[in-house]
Design brief:
Layout (H helix, E strand, L loop, with lengths): L5 H14 L2 H17 L2 H7 L5 H13 L9 H14 L3 H14 L1 H19 L5 H4 L3 H76 L6 H21 L16 H10 L4 E5 L8 H21 L5 E8 L2 E9 L15 H11 L3 E7 L2 E9 L5
Parallel strand pairs: 1-2
Antiparallel strand pairs: 2-3, 3-5, 4-5
Helix pairs in contact: 2-4, 4-5, 5-6, 5-7, 6-7, 6-9, 7-9, 9-10, 9-12, 9-13, 11-12, 12-13
Length: 380
């Protein structure tokens, strides 16, 4: 297949975005209402001598066009539907209007609008020309009018509740993602505290030793100031970053990957681990990031593709560190749905991004591939 030109590709993306927008759904609703009402045009032209087929179609088109306002102003198509109901005895428009009120304004408004519709229809019934087409008596007439209104409003109310549930679910996922990002930031901060804090302590001690050795020399004061600066930096780090608990485990690095692979194999997913020798020279902070990414990927593989092999490759590509975790896609969903918060990718992405890197996760040639690329920090 030949690639589309850039301008056609951009146009197609715009069309796709518009097709997924609420405005597109409103236009489809208006066209649907108009299409259904067109079926009544011959009868409308016969019943109302002032209309022809063309003018009846124009009147119905104008009425249906108001449905594009059904989200912001659903009362507009509702009132227009009343006009069509009294003038042309057209019931199609009122169904769309009541549905729109139920969906976009909720149950109370829908119930009120339905009651208003039934009352108005009963008043129309008493007008000359109404009983004939719709029933010989009021009971027959209401048997047609009431179910139409109640059903349309009821479906709209059900859609409104569904929209609320979906919105709440979206908010829950977003809140969980934000929480995961926050927790990952705290974790990164704690790693910084453990690793950088130790180096600052060593720096302060060595500066003090040098100050003692340089007693009586011109540079003694400089060494003392350097030691004092290192102590202040360590103190500021302690104040800024939440400390780990007394029983916290040491920050893991590349040496902990073997244990992760063994744990994964015990769960039934064999791991082929390849770590470039040069990667062992990475800073402890970068090693921790690699460990966390691999840990999350192995956990996800065990959840979504249990029993399938996993390949882990850690290599240096010029100035960049590249971590790739690849596992085959499961031929069928797991027997039991995996327990997941859905925030693992957010956590990995936050950790990698905080170090100036990028993370990509996608299906690729029958496998699920997670690739993290970040600066190695090693001299070229």
């Amino acid at each position: 297949m030949l690639p589309l030109p850039a301008h056609r590709s951009a146009l197609r993306r715009r069309v796709d975005r518009w097709a997924e927008s609420p405005r597109a759904a409103d236009v489809v609703a208006a066209l649907s209402a108009f299409g259904l009402m067109l079926l009544d045009v011959p009868g409308l032209a016969r019943e109302d001598n002032s209309l022809t087929g063309a003018t009846a179609a124009l009147a119905l088109a104008a009425g249906a066009a108001t449905l594009v306002l059904r989200r912001k102003a659903p009362w507009v198509p509702f009132l227009v539907a009343f006009g069509l109901l009294g003038w042309l005895h057209e019931l199609t428009m009122i169904q769309f209007a009541l549905y729109s009120l139920g969906r976009f304004r909720g149950r109370r408004i829908a119930v009120l609008a339905t009651a208003l519709y039934v009352g108005t229809a009963c008043a129309y019934y008493e007008m000359p020309g109404w009983p004939g087409p719709h029933g010989e008596n009021l009971s027959d007439f209401l048997g047609l009018v009431v179910p139409i209104g109640v059903l349309a409003a009821g479906v709209g109310i059900a859609a409104h509740r569904h929209d609320l549930v979906r919105a709440l679910e979206t908010q829950r996922r977003e809140a969980a993602a934000r929480q995961a990002v926050q927790e990952e930031r705290i974790s990164v901060g704690r790693d910084v505290h453990d690793l950088v804090g130790r180096e600052l302590t060593v720096l302060a001690v060595r500066a003090e030793v040098l100050a003692v050795r340089a007693r009586g020399e011109a540079h003694r004061k400089d060494f003392e100031e350097l030691a004092d600066t290192a102590r202040r930096a360590h103190h500021m780090l302690n104040e800024t970053v939440v400390r780990r608990g007394d029983g916290a485990a040491a920050t893991p690095g590349l040496e902990g990957l073997t244990a992760l692979a063994e744990e994964s194999e015990r769960m039934g997913s064999p791991v082929h681990l390849v770590v470039a020798e040069e990667a062992k020279a990475l800073s402890p902070l970068r090693q921790t990031a690699v460990h966390r990414v691999v840990q999350e990927c192995l956990t996800n593989a065990a959840k979504h593709a249990p029993g399938l092999p996993v390949g882990v490759t850690i290599e240096l590509d010029g100035p960049s560190l590249r971590v790739e975790v690849r596992n085959p896609l499961a031929p069928a969903p797991p027997h039991r749905a995996p327990v997941s918060t859905g925030t693992g990718l957010f956590s990995m992405d936050e950790r990698v991004t905080s170090m100036g890197g990028t993370l990509h996760a996608r299906p690729e040639h029958g496998a699920y591939v997670v690739t993290a690329t970040l600066p190695s920090g090693l001299p070229r």
